[in-house]
Amino acid sequence: MTTIHTLGYPRMGEARELKFALEKFWRGEIGAAELEQTGKELRAHNWQAQKDAGLDFVTVGDFAYYDHMLNHIQLLGCEPARFGFSDEDELTRYFTMARGQISAHEAGCDCGSHSTWALEMTKWFDTNYHYLVPEFHPDTAFRLGSERLFGEVSEAQALGHRAKAVLVGPLTFLYLGKSKTAGFDRLSLLEKLLPVYGELLARLKQQGVEWVQIDEPILGLDLPDTWRNAFEPAYHLLNAAGAKLLLATYFSPLQENLSMACKLPVAGLHVDAVRAPQELAQIADWLPAHKLLSVGIVDGRNIWRADLGAALAVLKPLAEKRPLALAPSCSLLHVPLDLNLETALDPELKSWLAFARQKLDEIAVLKAALSQGKGAVAGKLEAARCALAARRSSPMVHCAPVKRRAASLDPRADRRDSPFPIRQVKQRTRFKLPAYPTTTIGSFPQTPEIRAARAAFKRGGLSAEAYEAAMKHEIAHAVKIQEQLGLDVLVHGEAERNDMVEYFGEQLEGFAFTQHGWVQSYGSRCVKPPIIFGDVSRPRPMTVEWARYAQSLTDKPMKGMLTGPVTILQWSFVRDDQPRSETCLQIALAIRDEVVGLEAAGIPIIQIDEPAIREGLPLHRAQWKDYLAWAVRAFRVSASGVADETQIHTHMCYSEFNDILPEIAAMDADVITIETSRSDMELLRGFGEFKYPNEIGPGVWDIHSPRVPAVEEMVRLMKKAFAVIPSENLWVNPDCGLKTRGWVETLASLRNMVEAARYLRGVSEVGMGWSVSDSGLLANSSMQPQAEVCGLMSSTVFCSTSAAGGVG
């Protein structure tokens, strides 16, 4: 008998109900009861969608108000002691860990009165989803710390559903955490953690949960022997709880962990047959016949319609020999919710696609074909075959001039004219910046007024001329504020941009866009990835006129802001009919054309953001070399068409970079800015040990939290940077762009950041033998109180009474 299920489902809702409820809750506009009701309604809707599609189980435990790893931190009772929780309720503690300790709602201005920063955030394997990193210490204890999962199981059962619970496995939970205690091995905590998992499993069994999906995606990594050897004894203990365990792996081949995974004492094994089709036959042979084999046969990471005929050819011989379950390859968290919501897509392109809801239908068709014969679903199988054939032959997909340009590229197209030391001298002569130059990463707050203008323009309610005037007003406002704050290198604020990838994709050939194709990135932050369906080219300039206008408003250097080719690739749904390296090179050439256009327009500094270069790494190290070769080359192709005097920046965030530092150096950006504040500058240490040769701006302000860091906090972080990076190569900047922040906290934080840089310059003039203390620093600080920050805002035609900000 064949069963069907899903490893997880999108959380946000058809109209992003969860996003808007969260943001209202954070602003104090709704209470906890209303937020919880929204969550309950979304869960019920998701479970019903799974039941309607014919799934044999609904998945419970995949829902989270911010992040599923954060859910587990509470579930397992290991909230970090540094937060100092006492009698706070569970939801308050949850969001404090996610967003940091603040003294007022996001609309207020804390100005650094608290020093409790949020949990570190980083990428979930090779996806663009961000998880919150558990913090471990030798004295970390575990206990059942939340009843939320059990309550959700009861919800599903009360609605008449057959529930399958899902947990992050204990080894993955520990492996993905961090410890700052020197010499401490977090694997040593496993002995304390396993009894809590055993208690969890026993409780779930008592509730009548038949299957518990336990996710161990680290089985797709190159694990140290100590971690690999811990699996068998750990799962012997977990199996003793009596629940039927479905061990789930995804995103990568199992390789050296394959045999061990097949032998573990669990009732079933889920494998990713999309990322590792070559392993399926061997797994089917090695997995004992009485165990359930769950085949991830439909791609949970991309939006292309499945080749159902090919899938059936793989599945039929397996189904004849053993118990089989069918599922998407991984959680459907990583794809949009429902293709039926898209009413404006080209009909031909739409026929090639499947979103989360349609992927459930695909596995239902496969189940019917296996259990009832192909004739039972002949029409659906034929429709899938015709869509696949149409896509392969469509003239929408192929452009001969684009392919010829990439194939005939000059071998030196990825090299600057001179090495960095020569360029650095020329650039310093040109810009004459002070020590510790200050800048931002690109975007400024996207106010309701900005979004309203963009929406009106898109629906035809605002003329092109009126929209351009509105955006120029916002740009002028951003430039004036930066000049008044005293920033050294300015940006135009990106008011005209909806998203750092979507904005460019809308202006490139080979891209398509959805209306409702939202995917969660972190917390309430959603992105709408473009669809790369064909060959990519740049038909016209994309940012040049906006940047030219911004530069005309100031004598200070203006940065042109672009998204890099690897990030555009990684944060899009990419065509799967040619190698990703070929698509990336096409994008690189399009960005190169824009870089050259910006330089010709008089823009002296150009930033090409590549926050996704690390997440594109294959999960097995043996495959890194090939990926990094073409990814680094693509960046250099995009950046190398300019003169030595033009300064190229790049930005990276929320990833671990230490193991690819030679390749980051090989990108040869003049300046790199990186996220470091949440890790307390830990991420910078590797750059120092590697002796990173170019200039670097470590982030001193966590922009994903509404708290305002104090001057002394930023100085303390920069002092840690001095210990590992030559001071003459350091910049001062936030962690990331400011699009999601409000103006009040933005201005307060930037004022503190500029003040910190001025303090550092004064200290550097008398030598580096100094220390920071609260009283000593603030005694020398001219930090403005909130009233003066708001005065700055109102003096620049800013309405200081608006919580989210606004202009005019």
Note down, in words, how this protein is organized.
- With 808 residues, the chain is of the alpha/beta class.
- 41% of the residues lie in helices and 11% in strands.
- The strands form 5 sheets. The protein has an 8-stranded parallel beta sheet.
- The longest helix is centred in the middle third of the chain and has 22 residues, at 464-485.
- It starts with a strand and ends in a 14-residue tail after the last helix.
- The model is unreliable at 103-114 and 765-808 (pLDDT under 50).
Radius of gyration over C-alpha positions, nearest whole angstrom: 26 Å
Rounded mean pLDDT is: 91
Number of strands: 20
Largest sheet data: 8 strands, parallel
- Outline: globular
The strands making up the biggest β-sheet line up spatially as 1-10-9-8-7-6-5-2
**Percent of residues in β-strands:** 5-15%
Low-confidence stretches: 103-114, 765-808
Main structural class: alpha/beta
Q: Helix proportion of residues, in percent?
A: 40-55%
- CA-to-CA gap between the ends? 65 Å
Write the layout of secondary structure elements.
Layout lengths: L1 E3 L12 H10 L5 H21 L5 E3 L7 H8 L14 H10 L21 E3 L6 E3 L15 H11 L4 E6 L1 H6 L14 H17 L4 E5 L9 H15 L4 E5 L9 H6 L4 E5 L7 H7 L5 E7 L9 H12 L4 E5 L18 H4 L5 H17 L5 H16 L6 H8 L12 H12 L16 H11 L5 H22 L16 H4 L3 E4 L6 E4 L2 E3 L3 E7 L6 H9 L6 E5 L1 H6 L2 E2 L5 H21 L4 E5 L14 H16 L7 E6 L8 H7 L3 E4 L7 H9 L4 E4 L12 H12 L20 H22 L9 H6 L6 H9 L14
Parallel strand pairs: 1-10, 2-5, 5-6, 6-7, 7-8, 8-9, 9-10, 14-16, 15-17, 17-18, 18-19, 19-20
Antiparallel strand pairs: 3-4, 11-14, 12-13
Helix pairs in contact: 1-2, 7-8, 11-13, 17-18, 22-23, 23-24, 26-27, 27-29
